[in-house]
Batch of 4 targets.
Target 1
Amino acid sequence: MDLSTPIKYLKGVGPARAAQLETKGIFTVEDLLLYPPFRYEDRRNLKSISQLAPGEMATVIAEVRTARAAGFRKKNLGLFEMVASDDSRSRLLCKWFHGAYLESVFSPGQRVALYGKVEFDSYSGELSMLHPEYEILSGDEDEGDSTIHTGGVVAIYEAAGRVNTRMFRTLLHRLLPETPALTDFLPASILHRLELPSRGEAVAGLHIAGGDADVRLLNAFRAPAQTRLIFEEFFWLELGLLLRRAEARKSDGIAFELNDRVRERIKTMLPFKPTGAQKRSLGEIAQDMAQPYPMQRLLQGDVGSGKTLVAAQAAVIAIENGYQVALLAPTEILAAQHFLYFKNLFTPLGYQIGQLTGSMTAREKAQMKKLIAGNYLPLVVGTHALLEEDVDFAKLGLAIVDEQHRFGVLQRLSLRRKGAAPDILVMTATPIPRTLALTLYGDLDTSVIDELPPGRRPIITKHLPDSQVEQAYSFLRREVDSGRQAYVVYPLIDESETASMKAASKMHEHLSKIVFPDLRVGLLHGKMSADDKEGVMRQFKAGELNILVSTTVIEVGVDVPNATVMVVEQAERFGLAQLHQLRGRVGRGAAQSYCILVTEKLNEIGRERIRTLVDSHDGFKIAEMDLKLRGPGEFFGTRQSGMPGLRFANLLRDQEFLEQARTEAQRLVDEASVAGGPPADELVRAAAWVRENWQKRYGLVEAG
Ligand code: ADP
Ligand code: MG
């Protein structure tokens, strides 16, 4: 038996159980060893039932007396009741709703471990537990030594089909003593410095806690065995990202020249004096662009901080060096808007600029592609259409990707293949909490614009329940009467998607015919043709519309400084970061702006989320809160966000280890670059391990 032995060959497993284990990703002996318990239970000095007090969380070991579906009246709730008692002869009543399936689980005389919150059941006057976790301690399973389940600190596993926690424990107790030594791939210098247990010790300690184990530490995932595995997981991830970055630096790129002539051109173009943060970011970008390897930089900045202007300056550097620039936008509206913005900036410089989007006709596209391939266009703005294979740049030198998280790593790569090795600048207006930035963009260098252009006033944000939406409308009217414009935003366009949602188009009718019959109310949503969208945007920008009813298509980039009010309906349906983005559509001029969040139903978390937005303007703070309240998977509002699936580590809980892993990985890469010596050997070994294992798992490091 070795680590790669298929699980079905393990004693006590067989094909049926193997199939169930596979549903949890357990295919081999190694997978089983790395299947972490989610909780630990202290069964050393258990209380008897008579010692329990209502309100506490407790484990008891007792014997089943009776177990049956509850009487006639409660039967329709599927209530299942089980009574257990122990040597103290006291009774503990256990109840499960929808518990009919338990009929085949419990029978009188069984010994069971029960874990749950102790309550006082006023109906029967007894101590009770509602939906306790349970483990049958006696039974006909091939369990071997039963003391592994009682009397110590025991590991609790999430069941895999019918493979329950007890069976996991049995299998692992049997497997661990026979396990071939686990090779430790973490560099010895790191193990030593951080005083980490070896991989073998850590895996053993994960499953078998030992007599003097600290259960509180284990349940906080802070026992040395656990933190070693958490650290290790982050370490390989960060090392993979750093290696990718190091490799990119070795490849040949374009060393752009930034001379006085280029500086002069930039100055001619600038409509404002850049802020300090803009200058600093441009400095970092220009320095990268001057290097002979491809730039890979992330430009972060809150909405309205002026990222586009910085990107435009970078574009001038590339263009003046005789190269083409591609600007990728996530939506057609944004592409159209960038097109206009750059046209204004670049026309005085004499640059021709083009646009390529999915909704163009085949002929228009073909023509545009010819111009791109013939090097007639120094700047091309586009959507995903720019990534299509037959788009051939004559001399792509710089690719600017706006709103990166919608593109993902693969598209970043396909962009790189379009030029020999173009510099890449990724812009994101979603402030990314550091933990996510380190995991998702750990291979990029980062610049942050942490300063807004002068003269901006913070947006005033208010919260209104749905029943008072009229107040929002009358406020909106006052602003429009004084010459301002307003947005009204809805979460979804098509009513068929969710009956309860007000469709923006329907509300457009309501607002334009009944609430504001005398005002010009436009409609913008994702299903309109590109021409129609552009038309509406142009009208709104020109002030021909007072109010724009919209879905979230306006979320990014739309820039109309005269718009001072935004009403967001059903605000509870949006992510916090998304609401913050939306809110950034107002407050873009000198006038005081307002955002009114209208909500229907709010639970506790919902209230906290809305409060965060009302109280804070800091995009990073809001993003952190969003991450906390919704978790990393939901953070970007999409599952295909490229988040690596982590086994031990948790981005929210384990940030400190992520930082530590980053530092250690960086140190290893740095020390190894001073040629020769042991660190270089360690890096070679570690890099090979990352390539073989992490690439497979997460596709993090490019082949070769
Ligand atoms: P972002 O893309 O970061 O959300 P934009 O680049 O769209 O921000 O800039 C927001 C607004 O601020 C735009 O109207 C832009 O022209 C303006 N702006 C950018 N930089 C400055 C500056 N240094 N001074 C004044 N206004 C600026
Ligand atoms: Mg922008």
Target 2
Amino acid sequence: MLSTITNRSILFAAGLALASVGAIAADHPTVGYTDTPFIPGQKWRVHDGTRPQRRVVTPGKTFSHLAPPPSDATVLFDGHDLSKWKGTKGEAGWKVEKGYMEVADGAGSIRTKEEFGDFQLHLEFATPSVVKGDSQGRGNSGVIIYGIYEVQVLDSYNNPTYPDGQVGAMYGQFPPLVNAAKAPGEWQSYDIIFESAQWDKEGKLTKKANVTVILNGVLLHNRKEFTGPVKHRDVAPYVQHAPKGPIELQDHHNPTRFRNIWIRSVGEYD
Ligand code: MG
């Protein structure tokens, strides 16, 4: 949720600030922000560049890649068209070819026409094989649940950034447990389980939204609760929303690709 221009300015400023503290700069070559609020319940600021970079885990060659949808899944994208999607600026204007969709810079983010409650989502993405930019400007997109809760998509292969903004981060709130990114251009699988926030009849929050995220077969979050809506450089309290919402894919000006997207509603135990 950060523009490239803004990010470059910050990195430039951060680079100047770190020039006098080389040892720290070596440990933390990319610094985020020092003027942001602390994340509720944590000792770290939002987009804290001094937060440790995640341990790298090399994923297996495939996990759920090209996984066919189960019988009760809703197929959101089978490689042919964007009929299940609309644009946040009107039509879903992303490119579709060769079985994938690709972010069209300036077309805006896209979101599903249908809304979902608690769900299990499968999708695959590939960040650009031709590497351009760095930090938040490299392969940035995102799975923004209900347009509120972002699970970050980024090229995090040898691309340090503030940890709560790397691939798999609950953006601005929790970095992933580890860095399981594949190389630029390689297809990566996301399996995401989401439980929506709940409120009682008086409008009191009774359950925070939580997410379980598996990237390329590696667990990044296990029912981790969002602290509230995702913000760039800020924190925000929960605001009551409907129990269902769309799945949004972010246009962050980088031609990131998606394929094989399906979703299942999660039922209740008896
Ligand atoms: Mg993003």
Target 3
Amino acid sequence: MSGPTQTTRVDAAGLLQSVFGYASFRPHQEAIVRHLIAGGDALVLMPTGGGKSLCYQLPALARPGTGIVVSPLIALMQDQVAALKQLGVKAEFLNSSLSLDAARRVENDLLAGRLDLLYVAPERLLTERFLEHLARIRPALFAIDEAHCVSQWGHDFRPEYVQLCILHERFPEVPRIALTATADEPTRKEIAQRLRLEDARHFVTGFDRPNIRYHVRVDEGGAREQLLRFIEERHAGQAGIVYCLSRKKVDEVAAWLNAKGLTALPYHAGMDAAARKQNQTRFLNEDGIVMVATIAFGMGIDKPDVRFVAHLSLPKSLEAYYQETGRAGRDGEPAEAWMRYSLADVILLRQMVDNSEADEAHKRLERRKLDAMLGYCELTTCRRQTLLGYFGDPLPEPCGNCDNCLEPQETWDATEAARKALSCVHRTGQRFGVNYLIDVLLGKDDERMRRFGHDRISTFGIGGELAEREWRAVFRQLVARGYLAVDAEGHGGLALSDTCRPLLKGEESLLLGRQHLETKRKTRKARAGTPAAQVAGDPLFEALRAKRRELAQAQGVPPYVVFADKTLAAMVAERPQSLAEFARLSGVGEAKLERYGEAFLAVIRAAA
Ligand code: ADP
Ligand code: ZN
């Protein structure tokens, strides 16, 4: 872009419209952008999809010189640079994926002042050679993306990040901005201290992802069919991720969904690297692909239009759940997080913790995290309030956009039932699993029962007032709340824990939700309300998508960097007839207007 690199005084709103094609800033963006343009340092905590990149991209264009962006993930850099080029911004990256020649060319561009933005891997930035380059040019700003990588306590720790404080020492006059989506208060302090950003202004927007709708149900059999129905009825033709615990299940579910007519691709560590890469590329570059994956998939995936994330088994912690579900709806449009879980998942995860090599303190922590996860699943109140509360960002009012807010669950007093269940565990010697315990409570008189003599104990047959699935819910809840412990040997045997005493003595009570059975009455026909979903299936929308695919393929970039679904949906709604009308659509800046305006107008006219 010829303008901004030379211009010193540019108005931020003007750039937002002319380069990015957006009419207004998202919350906090404007304050951050102005602060940086004026030369201030900033520490930004903003949830995924909040619009962090614009916070440094726009000031880099507004200030003279090249904006230097440190980013730990090669895939993300490539994506961002591809998107910026589409906007007509002169952006490049430097990382190990470039040939020596290509890297030299980028360095020459940098030294000649031809770049608006340069993305660099931290280890590259820290080389003496690169630091000398920086001394010869005039950096517009330094942006440190994924700044939590500096935290030694986090799981994304990158040793090179700690050395990034050198930027401040060598270039004290250049403004810096550190950004992250995942920092709690202690991590935020650590970032500020290690990156020498103590005096930076903090912009904290919280963790909430209001566009994601949470939905959680127990798997009482048929989870796969329910998933299929969920996709067909609410997300037909849209991209999504389905997480499973094991590789075997990934393969099975992907094959099954394919047999049902969806395009589902597997992704797990057991596949060879080339096949995995190919599936990931297809997920990014094609429309409407469902990725079935173990948790290994997702890191470094910045696809903005993932419309749903489904879990067919329980994640091991709320941290993992929030990160995985957070891959939905990065574009800020409505998206759904859907889960089916079972007590068997809990028992399996519990055993994995118990049998791991970790020390006892670590195991205790993992167990607590699993308990919190299960507690979340069994909630009868607003899920978002609990989630955000867990992450230290309380939400005062119920959210109105989770299953429990939208379809409140009835509760029932399960105190008496819980006592019967606990005493049944006690009377049978604290070594049997749920199925057997329920048989005892329901008075199932079989050979095994008689062999153990359990047909003669006081809890035999005292549970007739509840159906089997209700007893399951009681046991699940007792495990979820830690009243019952799962044996470490791996047989699923349940034992009383100390905390169950107040409940047994009647000093505590237990309220349970009557989870809705997955019946027809509950499935709403309407798709999730994205503008794109509302027009999905519209012949014009499909024609625009095909045009987008063609243009993207010709350039070897993902379709969403040409135009977001939302922009295509706006074309369907507005039916612009001229370039002037086309320019008013959200997501159409000057470069895209010039590059693609006529091509899409032709599709719109042909449909009229
Ligand atoms: P983050 O890095 O915080 O996850 P991104 O920077 O990728 O988020 O932005 C998420 C999405 O929001 C992108 O598709 C981006 O183009 C869009 N976006 C950002 N700012 C605005 C804005 N002011 N108006 C409309 N869309 C925006
Ligand atoms: Zn809610």
Target 4
Amino acid sequence: MKFIAVRNYEEMSHLAAKFLIKQVLHKPSSVLGLATGSTPTGTYENVIEDHRKNQTSYEQVQTVNLDEYVGLTPTDPTSYRYFMENNLFQHIDIKAKNTHIPNGKANDLQAECSRYEQLLRELGVDIQLLGIGRNGHIGFNEPGTSFQTKTHVIELAESTRKANARFFDSLEQVPNSAITMGIDSILQSKEIILLASGKNKANAIKQLASEQIDKFFPASALHQHPNVTVIADREALTFCDNTEKLQTV
Ligand code: PGA
């Protein structure tokens, strides 16, 4: 696992976008694994800006998203499908049919998980973008999730519902469950970029940097993957005392 220290959210976003753009320029039919939340928004802004300025094309690109809430329609402003349309897809030349997100409204959620996992295996993800929860979750894989999990339905931790309540009118409106790529599904990606910005991620980044593998800290599964880059800003690195060992930009 390689750590890159950056100054702030803007630098993190700029660098993360560079990884995605480089991947697409190198292989125009790349499969990008994408994430939602506050962390990747700036990355998508940089991708859009580059698309406008340099015409980087996403015509052949396919995307797969990590997760979706159960019970929300794609047109619900709090659904992750809506987030992705709004924050990225509408602003680049990607084909709608090439953007994949679990269907949280599927009648048969188990069948939807199997379909999505099959799709992931068929496509093969080239590069997966990840945020990290304060409790170390990746995707919606909460502490205690087996590292062998494929795409599955998960009950959200109360801390996760509270952390995400800012996107809803009230905590009660935050769904109790979600469909998420499993930890094993995430580890199948050829390359993984994990982003962390801000003091509220400092404990999680400290634990990740300790390199201890612990089922109750899902992000620690990433130590089992050969090609992971963590891009973290100064605040997220507050409790990492070995910053001199980190690559800085
Ligand atoms: P955030 O969420 O980007 O909104 O902080 C990250 C996560 O929970 O994975």
